[in-house]
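hey m, so remember when u said the tokens were messed up on ur end? i reran from scratch. heres the input so u can diff it against urs
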Amino acid sequence: MLRLLRSVAASLILVLSTIIAYNLFVSNPEGILLAQASDKIKCPRCGYLNSAKNPDGTLNTDCDKCGYSIVSFSADKGPSKIDPKIIAKYAPEMKATYNIFRNKCSKCHTLARPINTDLSPTKWEEYVKRMMKKPGSGIKPDEAKRIWQFIVYDTVKRKPNFFNKLPEKEKEIARKLVSRFENESK
């Protein structure tokens, strides 16, 4: 009987530890992973301990001290830069814009996030405008436009499989942009 009780207790401990381990992370539909082990989330940039939730009860996604993203997306785990050999083949203006993109977009989150995220030109435009409005982003309207142009150009050049799956209207937006920059460099 004692052996049976020990076996049941061991099974319960295994089940409970699995449930606890599973609940340490919550994954939402956008792929955000937030640690739930405590009520605080440490900022990866400045180390500040942030409340896991905002006063209104929503999940806190940005550091309250420095504004850096305290959430992790699957795209954050991919390459954190574009191979210089690839950039070398880009139109001159796009090579220059890569530096703006790199400097501005890494202020608030990993550079891997935009490099490894697949969005249509229209969705990128919305996203860049939203990022421009974030406090501390330092992205001016003309820079936002150039960043958007770079991301669309890069999508066509570096992600042909994704680009080919886009609706024709989105492909046309991207083709015109690429054509414009490549014709200017001739």
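this time it looks ok to me. The longest strand covers residues 25-27. if urs says something different then somethings off w ur setup not the seq
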